[in-house]
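Project outcomes to date are best conveyed with an example. Our students and postdoctoral researchers have been running inverse folding experiments weekly, and each run begins with a structure described purely in tokens. The record below, which covers 652 residues, was selected by the lab manager from last quarter's runs and is presented without edits.
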């Protein structure tokens, strides 16, 4: 949690205000037992009489009090004549102060003799104390609501800020970081883990700060009422802490693995939902159901173990609380019977004891909740603390605004993080504006790796890549990628409309521009078929379109972006030969001012390229036109003849 402490600093003022309100709330609640004690001790037992013994009685008062047998006895022992009046003696004061019942019986007789309505006096006292308790209760309720509002606002704001920063950090990740964190894990960290942090942040402000204030205040008040019974509270607290420690030792290991099990369940769910068509095609529904059930049961069993352990807490805590009440009443009643404690003080002590134990219980519950949130916070902080392997230079250069676009590889080497062998080795070539450079090779030869180096999804480990004469590592990533239009291997569309997807790279593109790029991408006929045209809805991932339609829309999206370099990473694989040929012809006509780089498996897609690069096991084994490579590059010739007959290949 401490690694995320900076997110709480902007809310320090609100937290301090909450702390002040918690102090107020604790004092208000701790005052209630004291007023209850007054109602019992003074309002009921003393008839609401709070005044001291009268020092002087006149003759009329003396005679009225003496008319009662009890009053006559007290007067004889406590007062002596002094002229026309009677004065309280020191011995009499000591006797009456030691006999609280006799004292207040005498005071009642005195007040009656002076014309005071003692029944009304008692009623007024009880009503006054009750009104004060009602005001304190309402004030406590208001502070509770205020603290809850502050805690909710602070925790929600912290969760919002952490979630935003986490998303921004993930956006800045290179492919190397995505290899380290699975997609399912990143989703869990950005949702479930941050929810745990938000919940515990709320509970810390609302409970963890309040419990110690309440506990310390309760101890001070209880000691003021009956210090001789403090041992009862100490025993109850020790039993409570020992039991909570036992529960934590059993449940804590399961809390720590809970988030990993949630990750696993999300991963399995995501795989099955994204690959649902494959699952159905292979009739593997039962297998996938069992796999999901296994992950689900593992999480459920872990949760059940934790919950069953936690369920034991309430009966045991109830037993401790009831035992505490019985002990206080048992010991306190003996003291009341021996006139060592007023009954009201015993009742107040009982309430303070319950408040103290509840405070320790709240702290104990927080000790159980915080470790799980700490695991979540550590997982979030792990992502936030991961520095992207690819960063912008401290003093970035700028690309020339004018001139012909040129992309150049100079003796480029690349190895994946942790890889023992080079994925690319000694790659050198130049791709110029207005010309098409194609890349072909067997599966795993490094074609996609090569094009991923251009927008810096990975950085080269040797050599350099130049765009318009500037090393791409010397450019800001945004500036570099602004000049590149990429169509990835796997076509990916976003939920929205066709227009919103096409404008993804250029929000200012008008309908005329969209129509132009869609004509080039051979997708305009498909768009015209729909009633809504460019406003046709696109489901998540483009699931309401076919593979070929998604590929052509992805191509149109890249063409709509004002870029110097167009990269097509095996982006024609889902197209039929006729559409493929038409698209390439339109592309050659419309992309005359761009560097075009095409990665393909089909020879027919790249045979008319101005320059063909042949990759084999990460090395450039051939470079030239189709005819030149057929004559001088055995690797290329082998690829061609695996797809075409010799006669077809020579006539192309």
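After processing, the design step wrote out the following sequence:
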């Amino acid at each position: 949690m401490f690694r995320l402490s900076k997110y709480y600093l902007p809310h320090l003022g609100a937290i301090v205000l909450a702390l002040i309100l918690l102090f107020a709330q604790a004092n208000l609640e701790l005052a209630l037992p004291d007023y209850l004690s007054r109602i019992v001790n003074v309002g009921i037992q003393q008839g609401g009489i709070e005044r001291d013994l009268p020092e002087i009685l006149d003759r009329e008062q003396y005679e009225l009090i003496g008319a009662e047998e009890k009053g006559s006895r007290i007067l004889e022992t406590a007062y002596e004549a002094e002229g026309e009046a009677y004065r309280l003696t020191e011995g009499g004061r000591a006797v009456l102060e030691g006999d609280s019942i006799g004292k207040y019986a005498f005071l009642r007789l005195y007040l009656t003799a002076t014309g005071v309505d003692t029944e009304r006096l008692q009623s007024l006292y009880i009503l006054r104390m009750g009104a004060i308790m009602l005001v304190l209760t309402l004030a406590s309720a208001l502070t509770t609501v205020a603290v809850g509002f502050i805690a909710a606002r602070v925790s929600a704001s912290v969760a919002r800020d952490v979630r935003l920063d986490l998303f921004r950090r993930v956006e800045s990740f290179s492919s190397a970081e995505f290899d380290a964190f699975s997609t399912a894990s990143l989703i869990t960290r950005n949702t479930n883990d941050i929810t745990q942090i938000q919940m515990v942040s709320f509970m810390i402000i609302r409970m963890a700060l309040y419990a110690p204030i309440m506990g310390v205040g309760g101890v001070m008040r209880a000691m003021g009422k009956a210090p001789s019974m403090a041992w009862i509270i100490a025993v109850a607290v020790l039993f409570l802490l020992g039991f909570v420690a036992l529960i934590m030792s059993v449940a804590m290991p399961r809390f720590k693995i809970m988030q990993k099990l949630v990750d696993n369940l999300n991963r399995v769910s995501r795989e099955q939902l994204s690959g649902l068509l494959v699952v159905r095609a292979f009739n593997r529904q039962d297998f996938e159901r069992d796999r999901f059930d296994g992950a689900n049961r593992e999480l459920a069993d872990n949760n059940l173990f934790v919950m069953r352990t936690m369920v034991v807490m309430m009966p045991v805590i109830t037993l401790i609380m009831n035992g505490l009440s019985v002990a206080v009443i048992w010991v306190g009643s003996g003291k009341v019977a021996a006139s060592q404690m007023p009954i009201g003080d015993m009742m107040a002590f009982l309430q303070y004891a319950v408040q103290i134990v509840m405070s320790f219980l709240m702290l104990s519950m927080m000790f159980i909740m915080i470790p799980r949130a700490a695991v979540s916070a550590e997982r979030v902080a792990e992502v936030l603390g991961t520095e992207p392997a690819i960063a912008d230079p401290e003093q970035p250069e700028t690309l020339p605004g004018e001139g012909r676009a040129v992309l150049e590889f100079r003796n480029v080497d690349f190895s994946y993080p942790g890889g023992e062998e080079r994925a690319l080795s000694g790659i050198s070539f130049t791709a110029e504006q207005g010309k098409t450079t194609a890349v072909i090779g067997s599966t795993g030869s490094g074609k996609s790796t090569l094009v991923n180096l251009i927008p810096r999804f990975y950085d080269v480990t040797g050599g350099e890549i130049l765009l318009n004469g500037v090393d791409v590592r010397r450019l800001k990533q945004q500036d570099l990628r602004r000049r590149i239009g990429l169509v990835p291997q796997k076509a990916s569309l976003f939920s929205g409309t066709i227009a919103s997807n096409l404008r993804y790279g250029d929000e200012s593109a008008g309908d005329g521009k969209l129509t132009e790029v869609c004509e080039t991408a051979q997708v305009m006929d498909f768009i015209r078929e729909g009633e809504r045209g460019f406003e046709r809805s696109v489901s998540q991932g483009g699931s309401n379109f076919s593979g070929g339609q998604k590929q052509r829309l992805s191509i149109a999206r890249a063409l709509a972006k004002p870029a110097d370099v167009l990269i097509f990473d095996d982006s024609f694989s889902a197209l039929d030969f006729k559409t493929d040929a038409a698209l390439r012809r339109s592309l050659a006509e419309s992309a005359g001012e761009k560097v075009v780089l095409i990665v393909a498996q089909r020879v027919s897609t790249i045979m008319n390229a101005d320059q063909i690069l042949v990759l084999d096991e990460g090395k450039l084994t051939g470079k030239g036109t189709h005819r030149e490579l057929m004559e001088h590059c055995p690797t290329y010739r082998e690829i061609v003849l695996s797809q075409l007959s010799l006669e077809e290949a020579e006539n192309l």
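Residues 2-41+123-384 form a domain with the ABC transporter transmembrane region fold fold (CATH 1.20.1560.10). The chain is about 60% helix and 10% strand. The training component of this project remains on track.
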